Sequence to fold (107 residues):
Amino acid sequence: MKLLLYILFSAGLLINSAADTQERIRVTGIATNAKAGAVVLDDTGTPYYVDGLDHWEEQYLDKLVTVTGELKKVKIKDENKGAKKKKQQSKGTQLVLVNPEWEPAKK
Fold:
């Protein structure tokens, strides 16, 4: 059994399935807007997209906020592959807070 777990971990099979799970987290950072929607930047500069929010209202924008939500990693597909007209897009994986709730951060 230990050998099987070692093989699964070293092959990344358990890690990948764990990355797909949703876990409720709290992120405190600066509320800012990006082309793909509203984000909160944590103290390392990592952007967390706020699901369903296109932009921050003035009362939150560029201020310290706390956002609680289910963390979901979303892989961005390359939509420009084979397209005649290329469009600007993100690449890689985005961190998204699903079912978010936010409030000004308490100091």
